[in-house]
Amino acid sequence: MAKRYLLIFGLLLALVVAFSFRTTAQQDSTRLRVVVNLVQLNVAVTDSKGNYVTGLRPSDFVITEDTIPEKIATFEEGNGPTTRLVDLNAEAGKQGAGEAGSAPDSSSGPNSNAASTSSSTSSTEEPPEPPGSVLAGANVFILFDTSNYMYRGFVFAQDAIADFVRSLEMADRVAFYSYSRDLFRAAALTPDRSQVVRGIRTSVAGDDAALYNSLLLTVQDAAQYPGRKVVVVFSNGPDNASMVPPEDVAELAQSAGIPVYMISTTDARLEPVSTAVFERMSAATGGKAYFAKSWRDEKKAFASIRDDLGHLYSITYYPKPNQNRGWRSIKVSVVGSRAKKYRIRTRNGYRPRPKGFTPGAEAATQSTLLPNSQR
Fold this sequence. Notes:
The chain is of the alpha+beta class. It has two domains: about 35-130 and about 310-360, no CATH class; about 140-310, von Willebrand factor, type A domain (Rossmann fold, 3-Layer(aba) Sandwich), CATH 3.40.50.410. Helix content is about 35%, strand content about 25%. It has helices at about 1-30, 90-100, 155-165, 195-200, 210-225, 245-255, 270-285, 295-310, 360-365; strands at about 35-45, 60-65, 70, 70-75, 85, 115-120, 140-145, 175-180, 185-190, 230-235, 260-265, 290, 315, 330-335, 345, 350. Helix 3 (about 155-165) packs parallel to helix 8, helix 5 (about 210-225) runs parallel beside helix 6 and helix 6 (about 245-255) packs parallel to helix 7 (about 270-285). Mean pLDDT is about 80; it is low at about 30-35, about 100-110, about 115-135 and about 355-375.
């Protein structure tokens, strides 16, 4: 009997030791994962006459986020070479350690910044994607109004868009979407200009205009790609079929770092509400709004956008630890004796969001998107 009790006690002791060892091993292998965000800014600098200021260097710019000075990670002018100013892996590790102590379960929204990666407390860190490999050229998403507002001048609009596509830098990739009540992805993002032009030429007129639904979905598509991206909207009237407000679309574009350029063929005086929305949205995202009264003005607007894309400064930075989980204000300024005469255009901030969350997405997806074969 004594031997039996001794055997049972030995087995229990072995089980306790094994369980303790397994728990310790699990604790030792635990990795605290935090999301590291690389914020990208497209910055246009002009003088008092509206001419682009070129040749600026990284040391000429000062960037603050919620008044916190930020350190530039990469810098690029137009489609020129990318200058890397910090050790990206080291900077990601610093940010990961800082964020781990504040809110490890928080991250910016889907593609609210140029790139996002995970860092951990273990020695096997996952380095961020090198931005230098993804910033050459821009991803240009064109959204064309084919609603019944566009019946007049439809062909002239197609000509202007096709000329714009052909004139873009060869480093740029282009996607062409059209919309009326629904969004039609006529040409996916591609460097093949002929494929995009075919999508433009085969677009047909539709019915009501759901501009903000379609623009939100376009911004979501653009946000999935790293590097510089812009959305160019060609509209001929107000929105009369959307389910999401323009404010949600503007905030998503801001947080995703996507400038929105709006070209409207409607006289600004005839549509004051749409005019105000277009101007606010483009200004908040770092884009521009144009009001073209003729096909010549349309071509001039597209030429201005092409010129703008070629003169943008692309600047990235890793945000320093920040307890603010709401709207984060971004301010970009230029130092130097002539800096007061310069005008700077870029997005004015972004809102960090839980990963996978997009404002207005639920409402937008309620607008049925028909397959191409059913159109």
